[in-house]
Amino acid sequence: MVEILLLPNERFSNIEGYIFYPSRDVLPLEDVVLSPEIKGKRIEILWRLLNGENIKIATTLKALTEKVFSPDFLRENSLMITRSTKLTLSPERLVEMGYERVFTVQNVGEFAIRGDIIDIYSPGNDFPVRIELFGDEIEEIRFFKVDTQRSFQSADKTLILPFVDLYGESTLLDFVKTDVRFICEDLQKVLDEYRKFRKEMRDLLKERYNDFFDERVVEVVLKNVEKASVSLSTRIEKKESLPILDVDEIEEGGLVVHREHGIAIFEGVVRLKGVLGERDYLKLKYEDAVLYVPIEKIDRVHKYIGDPSQVKLDRMNRGKWKQTLKKVREDIEKKIRELVELYMKRQEAQGLSLPGDPELEEKFAESFPYIETPDQQQSIEEVLYDLASEKPMDRLLCGDAGVGKTEVALRAAFRAVVSGKQVAVLVPTTVLARQHYENFKERMETFGVKVELLDSSRTAREKKEIIEKLKKGEIDIIIGTHSLLNERIEFSDLGLVIIDEEQKFGVEQKERFKKLRLSVNVLTLSATPIPRTLHMALSGMKDFSVINSPPPGRKPVYVYVAEYSDDLVKGAVIREINRGGQVIYVHNRVEELPEVFEKLKRMFPELEIAVAHGKMSRRTMERIVHEFYRGNIDVLLCTTIIENGVDIPNANTLIVDDAHRYGLSQLYQLRGRVGRSDRRAFAYFLYPKGTPRSALERLKVLKSYTGFGSGLQIALKDMELRGVGDVLGLEQHGNVVSVGLKLYNEILKETITRFREGRIEKKHSVNVEIENPPGRFFIPEDYVQNPVERLRFYRRLASSLAEEDLEEILEEMKDRFGEPPTEVKLLVDYFRLRIRASKLGVKKIRFDHSMVEIFPNRDSPFLNHPRYNRRSGSVVLYTRENPVEFLMDLMKK
User: Fold this and answer.
1) Predicted local distance difference test score (pLDDT) of residue 567
2) Helices (H) and strands (E) in the chain — how many of each?
3) Could you say which DSSP state residue 375 is in?
4) Residues 6+ apart with CB under 8 A from 1
5) C-alpha 157: how far from its chain's center?
6) Share of the chain above pLDDT 70, in %
7) Strand runs (DSSP E) across 110-241, as ranges?
8) Fewest CB atoms within 10 A around its CB: which of 519, 561, 568, 610?
């Protein structure tokens, strides 16, 4: 029997024991594609029902009434692929089935073809499948992992389902092949939500409503539904997040940094013929020259990460680059010296050891409704270890909004309270204070922890009462703004101070924080992600915890740029409200807000709409934002003043109705207000009729800021740049810009090692120069078609320190692209020769037809070779064999 649990809306979609069948996240006739995750989930469930599986489904009446393709269509367009049979699946057929052709398969509904290898990610499969052909026969079927792109499990057959979303004459119930049972906890609530949705859809679609929805389903449900009690609370297991591939790989036309020569433009990979062979080079354009860098030296060239508008191309024939590096090194040394002195002072101070209560803390951890990410778990352990030690904690916890910093702060606060100490949580604004207060109160109250809020929303009498209770020890955790730093406020026994966004406080408050750090435990939260390399470099000098993993399941924001129309706004708002979400509507002219408000009220009379702007009193604005955060307001009409720091995961549609008035960076920041949950978010940037062409061009650029492509990369790098400023002081920003973030981090690490250990860290690398290597060795374009992927393989080969690394890369190439051609095998042999030569202390090898000349270092065994010539400092050998193979055999012996 199939069991269907009816939900009022899609907010409670994760219910233990039930598979969620989502409704479409786009409206009929809307010019927006259905999100791949939702499409895949719907097709998978329909297929399972069609095959007679007795499954338990949680869904809404809206989803049940949506029309879909027929069971016959699904059956006829599904293919079983079996090993040792002929493949009948062409690229054209896959496109007809709704699949999108890409280079690297990462999402459901994608396929890739590379020679005799076909990758497909079909709905219904936990992993994408790799099909290897011999001619037109299927030789092998393997499942592979998205993050590594490596195969891990063989199969004899696999099912490929169609990936299309069509409106037909069927509904989900037509796919059920067994008996069905409908259950519901609150039928009235389910019906109220459905009727509201039906009215909105009828108003929007008018006479075409019945083309998309079948109301007979509601009659079937009402006749058979049973009342049942179902727990909607569940511990949600977070999905693995997709890797963001190649964010640091150099791109044609982009700025790069060469360690020895400075900043240039990368003009692509060129293939040049030498005296004895042919290989690939990186072409770098400087202000006064062009440099060709052999591909084995790609590790000396990396992407420039900084502010391109503030840099000039370097000149190869001047010493300016060396002067720049010297200045950066001197500035870093000065800053590191200050950090070392501060760190030593803290080491001498005696802190408060907070041992905690393991049993209570375990129960508190279990009340967290998610599975901790590895970064988050490590941060919790680091903070709790600090609190248990004798030294006062001074730890900076970094990570973007929504990655789970608050949970780390909650665990720290709970440890302090069960150790008999008080906690103060300092935040820069009252809106954030209120948000923290509600989070802390919700989690702590069941454990008998007394949490209070001290901010401008409290009356004078309430403030006085709170201050008295703090002094007597009747409050365990106090949350507030800078007023908590007032000299009048006394604590009974303060053990931990949590500071959120310290950089937003004034100079006076920051000085107070410095004094605090020497006497109590301090945990500082920063919404700026710190680059992992910088975190590692500074560990042992400044206590860091870093949560870098983007929240698993987070989806890219769908950006829609169009001319304003009432129908467009109506569709966007209705879609969001119907899935239980909220809308942020931005109009940046305060004097026009009443007019816009009246218009929205006429369009949506049944919705709760509120207005917020900078000219209203602070208390009123904060109350409105707070009500929106609580979910009591459906649409917030506002100017751009709503803070970035306030996290409203349920607001996943943004409408900017005068987008032509903003700069690109402003629009990008606005876009960041939505998309903070695992739901797909929409950002509508609308402009009026008659908008100048120049403004439209700027808006079109926003389309390239969608998905995990260039826009996210820019955002990540911008955050990393800000991260350097947060840790070392903003005056370091200029140094980062002048040499790029990557080289800056390397100089920083070298300087710290020298200060901390009194030595310069020796880098392990293969640094053997090979002159006139014979043969054709490169990665052909028809073998690895994507230029970024080719560069990635070149970089991995060049940075390999052991022959095992090369074998691993070769195996990956075979798995993903099929049998490597001769050029690739020769390329791997070339890098193998460099590794062997490096281990034997060889600095240079020169080929000249049948002659091979080896130049050894001082500690090389080749100095004892009978043919070693002291005058030339080399060993000259002759061979009739392949010179590379001859040398490799010689060095192996």
Assistant:
1) 86
2) 26, 37
3) H
4) 54, 178, 179, 180, 181
5) 34
6) 84
7) 110-114, 117-120, 129-134, 137-144, 151-155, 157-160, 180-184, 226-227
8) 519
Q: What is the mean pLDDT of residues 359-368?
A: 92
**What HEC string does 67-130 produce?**
CECCHHHHHHCCEEEECCCECCCCHHHHHHCCCEECCCCCCCCEEEEECCEEEECCCCCCCCEE
- Give yes or no for a contact between 512 and 502, defined as CB atoms under 8 angstroms apart: no
Check pLDDT > 80 for residue 512. Answer: no
**Of 378, 379, 377, nearest to 368 (Cα)?**
377
* 72-103 tens-digit pLDDT: 999 999 999 999 888 878 899 999 999 999 88
Q: Which DSSP state fits 9?
A: S
Cα 295 from Cα 284, distance rounded (Å): 12
Residue 21, Cα to own-chain centre: how many angstroms? 26
pTM of the predicted protein model = 0.70
Q: Hey, what domains does the chain have and what are their CATH numbers?
A: 2-72+165-227 (3.40.50.300), 83-152 (3.30.2060.10), 370-546 (3.40.50.300), 558-706 (3.40.50.300), 769-892 (3.90.1150.50)
Spatial strand order of the sheet with 651-656 comes to 558-563, 682-687, 651-656, 582-586, 635-638, 609-612
Please report the pLDDT score of residue 849 as a whole number: 84
Give the least confident one: 596-610, 690-704, 821-835. 690-704
Tell me which amino acid residue 474 is. E
Q: What is the pLDDT of the chain when averaged over all its residues?
A: 84
The DSSP letter of residue 647 is: -
Q: Would you call 849 helix, strand, or coil by DSSP?
A: coil
Predicted confidence band of residue 825 (pLDDT cuts 50, 70, 90): very high
Contact 678, 554 (CB under 8 A): yes
258 touches 264 (CB < 8 A)? yes
CA distance 380 to 410: 10
Environment class of residue 253 by beta-carbon count within 10 Å: exposed (0-12), middle (13-18) or buried (19+)?
exposed
Instruction: Give Cβ neighbours of residue 216 (< 8 Å, ≥ 6 apart).
Output: none
User: Which residues are bridge partners to 458 per DSSP?
Assistant: none
Go through 123-135 and write b for each residue having 16 or more CB atoms within 10 A of its CB, e for each that does not: bbbeebbbbbbee
How far apart are the C-alpha atoms of 844 and 874, rounded to whole Å?
A: 9
Distance separating alpha carbons of residues 497 and 201, to the nearest angstrom? 52
Pick the closest to residue 183 from 230, 232, 229, 226 (CA basis): 226
Encode pLDDT of 671-686 as tens digits. Answer: 767 876 667 888 899 9
Please give the average per-residue pLDDT across 520-540, as a whole number: 64
Strands of 442-536, DSSP E: 451-454, 477-480, 494-500, 521-526
Concatenating the DSSP letter of every residue in 394-450 gives EEEEE--TTSSHHHHHHHHHHHHHHTT-EEEEE-SSHHHHHHHHHHHHHHHGGGT--
Q: Which of 57-71, 434-448, 541-555 is the least confident region?
A: 541-555
Does residue 9 or residue 414 have the better pLDDT?
414
